[in-house]
């Protein structure tokens, strides 16, 4: 392998761009697949899992990797686009090895796995030769969310530790989460979805409330319900408070009535109130799809003030496309709705201009009872990415965005099946080289 370093710590590969020989990026590295071998010999590296568009994880044999650098992995251009399916004889380094508690073979002392390193051999194979471990200190090896931080870290030979082949209950996830710290919520959700149920729960418990809320919003409903059910009630309520109200309402709507009410009562009243309102509307209506947190300004707000609100990096891009002008109060349900100001109009006006002077009053607002089909027609007709939802008395209740409309127009399991079908149709063939490599992995 040209450009191959003598040792590669695998946690550092997470999220690195993967390029073909022409320099085109085809995806990002997610994990490394290894085969544990008998007699405690170092595991053989079989290949990498790579996330490619759209939301698909494929297998890249290590024999096809030509270069590994600090910020790039280059392969020979041959890639089978079939979705990766882990086999019983295979282990994913980041998903399954990181944060494990193993023991030093000589002393029997417990240590936490911080990272794992692979090294090339003379025969051009790669083996997992080193393990970075952190020794237990203080009150125990691991505390929630810390991964046992605080003890000294050392790099030891693979043969110096034991316990990778056993099933560990209560495995931490701090190292795994750190490896994917910069991953977008949708990509992290795809990763979490592919984890075994036990590991999925461990990762969810270790994520902070905001990050877990972002991930839940991108997961299929079955995964959402499963994860929420594994959390303590107080924690589950905190996570729901961190979610967008419409997403929280969608999730709660999937739960039994008694469980839903128990969670709502544990939420802060001001956080639960908009969610309760959303639950009163039909799922596929404007009221059921809307968010209750659009950008709302009073008539005397200036263009500069409106633009400052749009610049909020936490805003959904569709919500940031326009502001809604209402008489006080500006929290939903607001005072009388006056109209919409699109962000392009804001960019064309002097900063001191009052928004009341540039408001668009020509578009009729959406009604909370409008159907999904009517919403899609409205947004398509006027080339909009969002629309105001106003009740019969003229109060703004929220806004419907194009991403929520698309989410409900697509099949319920689109995150899991729709995109796979396209890639499978493109290439459902097997790869002889890949099959030979993975079949002989434990030799």
Structure characteristics:
443 residues; alpha+beta; 4 domains; 6-stranded antiparallel sheet; 32% helix; elongated
Provide structural commentary.
The chain has 443 residues and is α+β, with helices and mostly antiparallel strands. It contains 17 helices and 18 strands. The protein is elongated and about 75 Å long. The strands form four sheets. Strands 2, 3, 4, 5, 6, 7 and 8 form a seven-stranded mixed sheet that branches. It has four domains: 8-87, PRC-barrel domain (SH3 type barrels, Roll), CATH 2.30.30; 95-175; 176-280, Alpha Horseshoe (MgtE N-terminal fold); 296-409, CBS-domain, CATH 3.10.580.
Please report the number of helical segments. Answer: 17
End-to-end gap: 22 Å
Rg computed from alpha carbons, rounded to a whole number of angstroms? 26 Å
User: CATH class of the largest domain, please?
Assistant: Alpha Beta
The overall pLDDT, averaged over residues, is: 89
Q: Indicate the overall shape.
A: elongated
Number of strands: 18
**CATH level-4 homologous superfamily of the largest domain:** CBS-domain
**CATH topology type of the largest domain:** CBS-domain
Write down the domain tally.
4
| Uncertain residue ranges | 138-149, 418-427
The class by helix and strand makeup works out as alpha+beta
Care to give the gist of this entry?
With 443 residues, the protein is α+β, with helices and mostly antiparallel strands.
């Amino acid at each position: 392998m040209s450009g191959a370093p003598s040792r590669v710590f695998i946690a550092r590969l997470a999220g690195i761009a993967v390029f073909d020989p022409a320099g085109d990026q085809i995806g990002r590295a997610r994990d490394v697949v290894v085969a544990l071998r008998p007699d405690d010999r170092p595991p053989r590296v079989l290949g990498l899992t790579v996330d490619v568009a759209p939301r698909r994880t494929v297998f890249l044999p290590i024999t096809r990797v030509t270069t590994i650098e600090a910020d790039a992995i280059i392969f020979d251009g041959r890639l089978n686009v079939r979705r990766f399916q882990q086999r019983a004889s295979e282990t994913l380094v980041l998903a399954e090895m990181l944060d494990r508690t193993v023991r030093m073979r000589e002393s029997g002392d417990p240590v936490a796995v911080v990272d794992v390193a692979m090294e090339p051999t003379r025969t051009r194979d790669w083996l997992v030769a080193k393990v970075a471990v952190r020794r237990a200190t203080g009150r125990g090896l691991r505390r929630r969310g810390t991964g046992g931080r605080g003890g000294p870290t050392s790099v030891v030979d693979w043969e110096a530790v034991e316990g990778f082949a056993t099933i560990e209950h209560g495995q931490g996830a701090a190292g795994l989460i750190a490896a994917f710290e910069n991953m977008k919520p949708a990509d992290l959700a795809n990763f979490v979805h592919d984890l075994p149920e036990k590991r999925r729960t461990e990762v969810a418990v270790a994520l902070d409330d905001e990050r877990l809320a972002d991930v839940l919003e991108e997961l299929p409903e079955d995964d959402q319900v499963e994860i929420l059910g594994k959390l303590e009630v107080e924690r589950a309520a905190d996570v729901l408070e961190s979610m967008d109200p419409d997403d929280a309402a969608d999730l709660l709507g999937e739960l039994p009535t008694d469980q839903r009410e128990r969670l709502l009562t544990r939420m802060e009243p001001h956080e639960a109130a908009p969610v309760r309102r959303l639950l009163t509307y039909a799922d596929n209506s404007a009221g059921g799809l809307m968010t209750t947190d659009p950008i709302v300004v009073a008539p005397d707000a200036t263009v500069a003030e409106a633009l400052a609100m749009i610049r909020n990096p936490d805003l959904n891009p569709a919500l940031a496309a326009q502001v809604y002008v209402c008489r006080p109060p500006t929290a939903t349900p607001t005072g009388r709705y006056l109209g919409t100001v699109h962000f392009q109009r804001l960019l064309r006006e002097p900063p001191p201009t009052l928004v009341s002077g540039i408001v668009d009053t020509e578009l009729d607002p959406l009604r909370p009872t409008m159907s999904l089909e009517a919403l899609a027609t409205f947004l398509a007709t006027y080339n909009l990415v969002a629309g105001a939802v106003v009740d019969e008395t003229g109060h703004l209740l929220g806004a419907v965005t194009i991403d929520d409309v698309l989410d409900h127009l697509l099949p319920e399991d689109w995150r899991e099946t729709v995109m796979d079908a396209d890639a499978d149709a493109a290439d459902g063939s097997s790869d002889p080289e890949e099959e030979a490599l993975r079949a002989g992995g434990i030799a």
